[in-house]
Design brief:
Layout: E1 2-8, H1 15-26, E2 32-37, H2 50-61, E3 67-69, H3 80-90, E4 95-101, H4 102-107, H5 114-120, E5 122-126, H6 132-138, E6 146-148, H7 158-166, H8 170-173, H9 179-187
Parallel strand pairs: 1-2, 1-4, 2-3, 4-5, 5-6
Helix pairs in contact: 2-9
Length: 192
């Protein structure tokens, strides 16, 4: 099985996160996606609790066998290479892929043990505003492990979603967030 590891803050998880996973599976690039929300050790302003982000991801992925959510990074500061190693160890007979945007690929050489990531795992790179030819040239030695895939996505900013939530513009935000996730946010008074 080919398993895509999809890391991020998911603050909150929104329809673009869902769409990326769905399209990668539909295109036959991977068979399963594991969402791995980063822990609160990650220095990011406005990051709500680990548990709330985990619960929202579970709501977004419920009744979908090809999706899973992991708490692996909770309670610790974890580097991407460690997360990938963990999932490879847990899924010895499977191929582990790392899902990222081209903005991540641009700076991956600043990440701890980035050579391990590029050498040992396939990267599914979703183009954003970066020059893909230039990026692929920069990482030419790893080109066999880099899969660039165009998806039907309008880039959606979590910052915009949080702004709508802060202003309680729930009708506007319905377009961007799964209904169960939105109900959870309202019920738990998040992002105010």
């Amino acid at each position: 099985m080919r398993i895509g590891i999809f890391g991020g803050s998911f603050n909150p998880p929104h329809k673009m996160h869902e769409s990326i996973a769905k399209q990668l599976i539909e295109k036959g690039i991977i068979d399963k996606v594991i969402y791995v929300p980063t822990s609160n050790f990650y220095p990011k302003a406005g990051l709500i609790s680990d548990e709330d982000r985990y619960e929202m991801l579970c709501l977004m992925t419920k009744n979908k066998d090809q999706y899973a959510v992991s708490k692996y990074e909770f309670g610790r500061l974890t580097y991407t290479y460690q997360t990938l190693e963990y999932f490879q160890e847990e899924n010895k007979d499977d191929e582990i892929y790392f899902i990222c945007g081209s903005d991540n690929l641009e700076y991956i050489d600043t990440w701890k043990e980035y050579q391990k990531i590029l050498s040992n795992y396939k990267l599914i790179v979703i183009p954003r505003k970066n020059d893909m030819d230039q990026l692929l040239n920069k990482y030419q030695v790893y080109k066999d492990n880099i899969i660039v895939t165009e998806l039907n996505n309008n880039y959606l900013s979590s910052t915009l979603v949080r702004q709508y939530l802060k202003e309680e513009k729930y009708e506007e935000v319905k377009e961007y967030i799964n209904e169960d996730v939105l109900n959870y946010i309202i019920k738990n008074n998040l992002y105010k």
